[in-house]
Please model this.
Amino acid sequence: MNLEMSDNDDEIFLFENVVKHLVSTYECSNDAAIRMVNEYYKKFTDPEYCSKFDISTQNEEFFSHIAARGMTDRVYYYTELNNKPNEEKFIIWQRSVRGVENL
Model:
């Protein structure tokens, strides 16, 4: 199973690290982690999907700003836990998992 995204080397590198973090942090299998990354990327870079939730599409600038650890949490929360896009609820969840001092 391969990552399905742009040919941008920076994005690929970042999401390869997200896969590694999903495996080590959330104990996902490598195949499950790749599936989650692909699902997340497909949804959150799709203008039609994002417009349903009144959010901006995500891009390389967003991904690099959040970085691998933050993107790992986002991918897990929105794909594995199957939550709908809601930044406030995500932050509350992330703080409960990581602790306020770690954000």
